[in-house]
Write a structure and sequence with these properties.
The complex is a heterotrimer of chains A (about 260), B (about 260) and C (about 270). Chain A is about 85% helix and about 0% strand. With about 260 residues, chain A is mostly helical. In chain A, helix 2 crosses helix 3, helix 3 runs parallel beside helix 6 and helix 6 runs antiparallel to helix 8. In chain B, helix 2 crosses helix 11, helix 7 packs antiparallel against helix 9 and helix 9 packs antiparallel against helix 11. In chain B, about 80% of the residues lie in helices and about 0% in strands. Chain C has a 10-stranded mixed β-sheet, sandwiched between helices. Chain C contains 9 helices and 10 strands. Classes of the chains: A mainly alpha (about 260), B mainly alpha (about 260), C alpha/beta (about 270). Chains A and C meet through helix 7, helix 8 and helix 11 of A and strand 6 and helix 2 of C.
């Protein structure tokens, strides 16, 4: 088979396979004719009607705010703590038992505690919950990234007597950035999940809350609409993140391509 | 000797701080039971049969979820990873289904399958499937072409190549996938219990939370944390053992 | 100007200790070009790092204009062998050269002119806004040299800087270093394993023994200046010096090979 034919077939498959899967889903719902499994077209209509824009401010915005704020805090803290820990063996040794414990605990186990400690189910509680668990991927990747920095880079900086704070700002941080971004990507996906969990557990607004309400009132259509919206949200946030990463880390791609390892 | 002193001291200091914060009322004892109170509650809890039964149920949900996910993800991952054509064809569906947080499926499962073990397992399996699938695919695609050519030149059959070259080469990635999936499976099993009421530690937490028994809420959270750590250690140990013969190609990842 | 007195460096303790540097003493006068040659694995890089203040010696001292070196001194600049690992890949050539100047008390205009002068001296003014990895190996090393020059050191330490560069480019870079030395009047300590290079470049050659390394012999090089890749290397004196150094090093290399067989590649240390 010539490469050209192969490539055409491949592109054809890339289009038809998803299309066929959507078709299968649609046919299944039509055949089953069950309010529990509405047709994809109905779901999309519901997403549009409900979330864009009737209840946009009520649900989509708070959810996005919580994700955004939680993620931002998690990244800030994760990097701020991760860099010193990456540079200090004693710091790492002291912090490791705590890190190992808090990253292993299933986050939902702390949902009741977060409500008790913060006396509310409002934004503070949600953002705190999201931020707390989203710190770990960023933190661990920052530590890894800092530890993996080429020693010659540090020797170079030291030989030119670059002061410590400048070293961290201009060398350690950029050198670890590719790894930090890998952690941020995981953290972002985690933020979406944490948002859903915290809103589903107890909330008065948000997409997760819609899930909760529709469960309590046995309404399937809003539930499916929320599921689809959450999936799309996760996908879009990830795509947006990759776009940013591509721009910020352009130097890294070029460097990896040019440098034999 | 110095190396173990630091982490131990760190933990002791943290526990001491907890006790101090609570006993002095910086955070009220109702909101944050003292460390001693919590440990006491935990101690009492582990003496009861209900606790261990619940623990076993959670472990069961995790194990079956992870096992099923692996049984599905690894073969499919190998198949998709080996075929450039298949990988392309299914790229879009995977990219769209992957990011769906399994947590979002909880109400759906609640209303369709009900609060049974089946729901819990479905949730855990669905969540644990994707990371393992993706990692397996990466691992298979990342195979050294020289190794493959060598196998071919020695006239190994397709199956032999698969089991003696492809899978072993992809093993580091697969094991990383297992580690990630294990974490996901535990979270989802627990989540199912907490939100749907399937039997397990999560259900116990829901119960004590409803009755506002703060001591036990904290004790259960503490215990669940230890379970998570234990499972993480166990899976990491298995990973090390399985990869013992494998030259470490990949840098150790702490994620 | 630079005095190295009884320098020694040992890694680790007890039975598994590695004696990298045994007892090294020599000195460098102002404006001299001194090459340090030794067999592979004899501890040249360790020695250089001790001199540069990046490593603390186990014994002995380094005196720069009479003052003890306890950390990287301000009057010293370093050029490493692995240029791809010493140039920051996220910075342009210009910013790489600028980096050491940022913490110096200079005006922005002064910094800019230092950077431009240095890049002009190495012939890379037109590449200021490129990234290092977009340049060839030889050009990257020239950026590293420019960076060291912009720093305005009084003494330049170079650790096998042309070892990772192809042979033809090496000749160009050698001449570049000589040119830079004449233009800026700096003292240069140049570590290499290339014997021809060591004789070609230097005023004196310090030949080292195998590990734990000591100074075997210091050979003055009285070849005429300016040096030329063809003319100088045709001289009988060049051949004589070269052969002399070669014999010294070869003898040490044979001992080194017997005592410390090359490890089979595997896990990196």
């Amino acid at each position: 088979m010539s490469p050209r034919v192969y490539r055409t077939l491949k592109i054809g498959a890339e289009i038809t396979v998803p299309f066929l899967m959507l078709l299968a889903w649609w046919l299944y719902t039509v055949q089953r004719d069950d309010p529990k499994f509405p047709r994809p077209t109905t779901i999309v209509a519901e997403v549009r009607n409900r979330f864009f824009f009737a209840e946009f401010d009520l649900h989509v915005v708070p959810s996005l705010e919580r994700i955004g704020l939680g993620f931002a805090i998690a990244v800030g803290l994760g990097v701020a703590i991760g860099i010193p820990l990456g540079l200090s063996r004693i710091g790492r040794s002291a912090a490791m038992p705590h890190i190992e414990y808090w990253r292993a605990i299933p986050p939902p186990a702390l949902l009741p505690i977060s409500i008790i400690l913060l006396h509310s189910i409002g934004n503070t509680q949600k953002v705190s919950f999201i931020a707390f668990f989203c710190i770990f991927p960023v933190l661990l990747n920052t530590i890894d990234g800092v530890r993996a920095i080429e020693p010659t880079l540090i020797d170079t900086a030291r030989s030119f007597r670059i002061p410590a704070h400048e070293r961290i700002r201009r060398i350690v941080f950029p050198a670890a950035l590719p790894q930090i971004f890998a952690g941020m990507r995981t953290s972002l996906a985690l933020a979406v999940i944490m948002m859903v969990l915290s809103e589903y557990f107890a909330s008065t607004s948000g997409v997760g809350y819609v899930l909760l309400i529709s469960k309590n009132t046995f309404q399937f259509l809003p539930m499916w609409a929320a599921i689809v919206l959450i999936g799309v949200l996760g996908y879009l946030l990830n795509a947006l993140f990759l776009l940013v990463e591509r721009h910020v880390l352009a130097w890294h791609r070029g460097w990896r391509a040019a440098t034999p390892r | 000797m110095v190396s173990i002193a630091v982490p131990v001291l760190s933990v002791v200091a943290a526990l001491g701080l907890w006790e101090l914060i609570s006993q002095t009322g910086v955070i009220s004892q109702r909101d944050l039971p003292a460390m001693s109170t919590t440990v006491q509650a935990l101690w009492e809890m582990v003496q009861t049969g209900t606790f261990w039964k619940a623990l076993g149920e959670t472990v069961r949900g995790w194990a079956i979820g992870l096992g099923l996910a692996a049984a599905l993800a690894v073969p499919i991952g190998v198949a998709l990873g080996s075929s450039d054509f298949a990988a392309s064809a299914f790229r879009v569906p995977i990219e769209f289904l992957r990011p769906i947080p399994s947590a979002a499926l909880i109400p759906l499962l609640f209303l369709t399958l009900g609060t049974t073990l089946k729901s819990e397992i479905f949730l855990a399996t669905f969540g644990a499937f994707w990371p393992l699938l993706v990692q397996t695919m990466y691992g298979v695609r990342d195979i050294d072409p020289v190794a493959v050519d060598t196998a071919r030149s020695f006239q190994l059959t397709r199956n032999e190549r698969l089991f003696r070259v492809t899978v072993p080469s992809a093993l580091p990635y697969i094991m990383t996938g297992v580690r990630i999936s294990s974490t996901v499976a535990l979270i989802l099993a627990f989540t199912a219990e907490l939100f749907m009421g399937t039997p397990g530690l999560g259900q116990r937490l829901n119960y004590v939370e409803t009755f506002g028994l703060n001591d036990q809420i904290y004790a259960l959270a503490l215990a669940t944390g230890f379970l998570g750590v234990a499972i993480h250690f166990a899976v990491s140990a298995v990973e090390r053992r399985v990869l013992r013969w494998h030259p470490s190609q990949r840098k150790t990842s702490t994620t | 100007m630079l005095e190295i007195k009884n320098l020694s460096k040992t890694y680790g303790t007890g039975a598994t200790a590695t004696h990298a540097v045994g007892n090294v003493s020599f000195s460098i006068e102002e404006g001299e070009f001194v090459c340090v040659v030794g067999p592979s694995g004899c501890g040249k890089t360790t020695l250089l790092k001790c001199i540069a203040g990046l490593l603390r010696p186990s014994a002995g001292e380094v005196l720069l204009r009479g003052g003890r070196v306890t950390g990287p001194p301000e009057q010293m600049a370093l050029v490493f062998q692995e240029y791809s690992r010493s140039l920051m890949p996220w910075m342009s050539v210009r910013n790489n050269v600028l980096l050491p100047l940022r913490h110096k008390k200079l005006s922005r205009a002064e910094r800019r002119s230092l950077v431009e002068d240095a890049l002009r001296a190495v012939g890379l003014v037109g590449f200021m806004d490129r990234y290092p990895w977009q340049l060839s190996g030889g050009m990257q090393q020239r950026v590293a040299i420019a960076r060291a020059l912009a720093y305005q050191p009084q003494i330049l330490l170079m650790d096998e800087p042309f070892a990772s560069v192809d042979a033809q480019t090496r000749g160009d870079l050698e001449d570049l270093v000589l040119q830079v030395r004449d233009e800026f009047g700096i003292t240069i300590l140049f570590v290499t394993h290339d014997i021809d290079e060591s004789v070609y470049l230097s005023d004196r050659v310090v030949a080292l023994t195998h590990a734990p390394t000591e100074v075997k012999e210091v050979i003055p090089v009285a070849l005429p200046k300016p040096r030329d890749q063809i003319a100088t290397k045709e001289l009988a004196e060049f051949a004589r010096l070269r052969a002399h150094v070669y014999r010294l090093i070869k003898r040490e290399q044979d001992i080194e090979d017997v005592e410390r067989p090359v490890p089979v590649s595997g896990t990196s240390v």
